[in-house]
Design goal:
mainly alpha, two-stranded antiparallel sheet, two-stranded antiparallel ribbon, 3% strand, globular
Length: 376
């Protein structure tokens, strides 16, 4: 028994926080200034104000997009309107990230602190591969943006100003994804740790089912409840910090899909331009889809816990005292589900992704009937 405890302690000491689980991403985001929470040697997270300096420079660069917008990009007012709309919402998303970093700094530090010691550190080859992929993605975004601007304008200041935009917004998406993934891994780690601690003694009868939560429950229900009641707190912290951010991200995603749909219909006969706009469309759907999938995995983990506890409630050998505790725990899970909120209007999930894509495709079908010309 003593040996088992020492192994568990060693395993726990080897775990790191969310910054250690995603070292490349969080180091880059810290350098750019979008994360002002910094871990001190004592293990506490505090606000690092000097990180705001590069963020101010980035905001200034991105904001210049609106001031040097080339109105000669095309001859139709609607094209200018849709470009400015996407640019304005994208800049609004970036400024929202700035506001979250400053105004929600204490809640962000609390979230990072709660996730500290819950993640497994990545292997060396994973960190190297992620660095190479990130560098390749930066080159790809720059080349694609260069081709896009080369097709529509020869303005060098416009080209230089807009080159960082897709990279910055991609990093913001990966930041949201990484934190949701960290909460999901913390949930799984709690389950595994509870399974080790609440394992039945050897020689006792095996449980009727191999369900992880049933094995834990058969040993001690109060410990299970104590072990899992802080999981909803992680999701609540995440929603407190990022719910408005995710709402703006949904609006930006819809406008970008509408823009891509418009130009896919308008320049369908120009293969090079069509391929570039289609790559923009696929990239946006891929990033937002990954964000929705991670939110789905978190919600499914919470639903699995809820279903397992409900199944335990129906067992004939459950004592009345345990039934009361299980009912209390189920009511707690029902009142605080592990859902990633989209502001105060909805929940982030795959069905939201499908709905937004359907809106964009409907918009493309309407445009196809009017056949906008390719005279850009």
């Amino acid at each position: 028994m003593q040996k088992r405890i020492s192994v568990s302690d060693t395993d726990m000491s080897a775990k790191v926080g969310v910054e250690g689980a995603w070292p490349v991403l969080f180091r880059v985001m810290g350098i750019l200034g979008f994360i002002v929470a910094k871990r001190r040697p004592s293990g506490h997270y505090e606000t690092c104000w000097p990180r705001l300096i590069p963020m101010v420079a980035i905001m200034t660069s991105v904001s210049c997009y609106l001031f040097i917008f080339p109105h000669s990009l095309n001859t139709r007012n609607y094209d200018s309107f849709i470009h400015v709309s996407v640019a304005a919402t994208s800049i609004g998303l970036a400024f929202n990230a700035f506001a979250v970093a400053v105004l929600k700094r204490r809640a962000t530090c609390s979230l990072f602190q709660a996730l500290d010691g819950t993640q497994r550190p990545p292997k060396a080859w994973v960190s190297i591969l992620s660095s190479v992929l990130f560098a390749a993605y930066v080159v790809f975004c720059g080349f694609k943006n260069y081709l896009t601007m080369h097709l529509f304008t020869d303005s060098i200041p416009y080209l230089i100003t807009t080159l960082p935009s897709p990279i910055v917004f991609s990093l913001l998406d990966f930041y949201l994804i990484a934190l949701i993934d960290a909460i999901h891994k913390a949930h799984k780690g709690k389950v595994e740790q509870g399974h080790r601690r609440l394992r039945r003694p050897s020689g006792s009868f095996p449980p009727p089912s191999g369900n992880l939560y049933e094995v834990s429950y058969l040993m001690r229900v109060p410990s299970v409840m104590e072990h899992y009641e802080d999981l909803s707190g992680l999701v609540s912290l995440y929603n407190e910090v990022f719910s408005t951010w995710i709402l703006l991200r949904c609006v930006t995603f819809l406008l970008k899909l509408a823009t891509c749909s418009y130009f896919l219909v308008a320049i369908a006969k120009e293969r090079a331009a069509f391929a570039i706009i289609l790559s923009h469309f696929a990239e946006e759907v891929g990033r937002f889809g990954l964000l929705c999938r991670r939110a789905d995995s978190l919600a499914n983990a919470s639903k699995a816990l809820e279903d397992s506890l409900f199944a335990l409630l129906q067992r004939p050998d459950t004592t009345p005292e345990d039934r009361i505790q299980l009912l209390s725990f189920l009511a707690h899970l029902k009142s605080r589900p592990a859902h990633i909120a989209v502001g105060s209007v909805g929940v982030l999930c795959s069905s939201l992704l499908v709905s937004l894509i359907n809106v964009a495709l409907t918009y493309a079908a309407i445009l196809f009937q009017y056949q906008p010309s390719s005279d850009l």
